[in-house]
């Protein structure tokens, strides 16, 4: 028998209005895809669960250039 696993992408958001944070979990579209392939759509509004403001999203500046 083998251990089984699944994969989860966990997105972390920071609200541009109230500065609170929240997370959103998703299943990856493709295991071999780049991080850009699994990015969220940037042309729709996302609602802050704390204050309710709706805004577009973008990847946090500098995140994709981080060295691992
Ligand atoms: Zn907010």
Task: Provide structural commentary.
The protein is an all-beta fold. It has one domain. The chain contains no helices and four strands. Strands 1-2 form a two-stranded antiparallel ribbon. A two-stranded antiparallel sheet has the order 3-4. β1 and β2 form a beta hairpin. The protein starts with 8 loop residues before the first strand and ends in a 13-residue tail after the last strand. The model has no long low-confidence stretch (mean pLDDT 88). Zinc ion binds next to loops.
What are the segments in which pLDDT stays under 50 over at least 5 consecutive residues?
none
Taken in chain order, the helices and strands follow as EEEE
* Percent range for β-strand residues: 15-25%
Shape descriptor reads globular
How many angstroms does the end-to-end distance come to? 33 Å
Q: Portion of residues in helices?
A: under 10%
DSSP, total strands: 4
Q: For the largest beta sheet, what order do the strands appear in spatially? A: 1-2
Ions, cofactors and other bound molecules? zinc ion
Oligomer: single chain
Task: Give the structural class.
Answer: mainly beta
Radius of gyration, whole Å: 15 Å
Main beta sheet, described?
Answer: 2 strands, antiparallel
Number of helices: 0
Task: Name a few traits of the molecule.
mainly beta; binds zinc ion; 68 residues; 4 strands
Topology:
Blueprint: E1 9-14, E2 21-26, E3 46-47, E4 54-55
Antiparallel strand pairs: 1-2, 3-4
């Amino acid at each position: 028998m083998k251990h089984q696993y699944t994969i989860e992408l966990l997105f972390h958001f920071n609200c541009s209005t109230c500065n609170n944070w929240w997370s959103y979990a998703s299943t990856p579209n493709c295991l071999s895809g780049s991080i850009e392939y699994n990015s969220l759509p940037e042309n729709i509004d996302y609602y802050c669960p704390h204050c309710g403001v709706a805004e577009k999203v973008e990847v946090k500046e500098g995140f994709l250039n981080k060295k691992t």
